[in-house]
Amino acid sequence: MSSETKSKITGLTSLPTIPVVITKLIGILKNENASINNLVEIIRHDQSITSRIVSIANSPFFGYPGRINSIEQAVLMLGFNLVKSISLSVSIFTMFPIPYIKLKKMWSHAFKVAALSELLSTKISGNNSGVCFLSGLLHDIGRAIFLCLNKINYPPESLENTLQLKSEELFEAEKSLFNCDHAEAGTWFLEELYFPKEIILPVSYHHNLESSALSGTPHRDVILALYLAEGLIEEFEPDSLNDGRFTDTHFTLFKESGFTEKDIERLRENFLLTIETAENFFEL
Ligand SMILES: [Fe+2]
Ligand SMILES: [Fe+2]
């Protein structure tokens, strides 16, 4: 671990550009008594987030294309949890000056893993689907952080070469550049923003999880769902730009969690329906 990299990453959270809206949205995330009105009150002051939420809500994925024209309507149709998760992720990702094409690819992968994690959660005890979706949207935030740090400190081609890598190879390449991997980077960043543990832990373990590590772990359900989702994405979409790899550990954990081959096949069908519009989902 490099304390120099860690301080660069945590330093990102005190940049003057960090939207106040992020801090306020995290407050909503932690407050069980927060109401829809509190949420709308925060988002409506940020024109760019509002317009993104509204355009996302109009995506065919949610079934109301072209019919949502205000944040109030979006909340009404999509629900409190979804709008909260999308607002947080949009505002965090857009903090980083990442080239549009890369940002779009990252969003697309983040959304697919989030959707898959949510689908998986229905069969995992705990069934915390909203948390699975949000941790899925943020799972690779460390990669966005690296792109941002890279722009400042490294020659542009150095990170470029890592974008096609997966899991262990990607971690190795990241460590040689930054002395840490994107799961660690994401963890530090989210900790610095005081995200709740149930969002941070799945991000920390999303490439690395032994089944023994799960016993007695708080938020086991969310950690497991995200880990399985990041692995399964390789099986479901081997050609797309994603960093997951399906390993023996995934196989074991699927079995231990009671998933049959039929369940996986059903998941694939649901997933394919889900991602039909994902490529255009986050038109930033
Ligand atoms: Fe990842
Ligand atoms: Fe990923």
Describe the protein in words.
The chain is mainly α. The chain has 2 domains: 19-94, no CATH class; 99-283, Hypothetical protein af1432 (Orthogonal Bundle). Helix content is 67%, strand content 0%. The protein contains 17 helices and no strands. The chain is globular and about 45 Å long. The model has no long low-confidence stretch (mean pLDDT 85). Residues 139-140, 182, 206-207, 230, 243 line the site of one fe (ii) ion.
The secondary structure category is mainly alpha
Largest sheet composition: none
Number of helices: 17
Oligomer: single chain
CATH topology of the largest domain: Hypothetical protein af1432
User: Class of the largest domain in CATH?
Assistant: Mainly Alpha
Heteromolecules bound: fe (ii) ion
Structural Rg? 18 Å
Overall strand count: 0
According to CATH, the homologous superfamily of the largest domain is Hypothetical protein af1432
Query: For the residues shown, what is the average pLDDT?
Result: 85
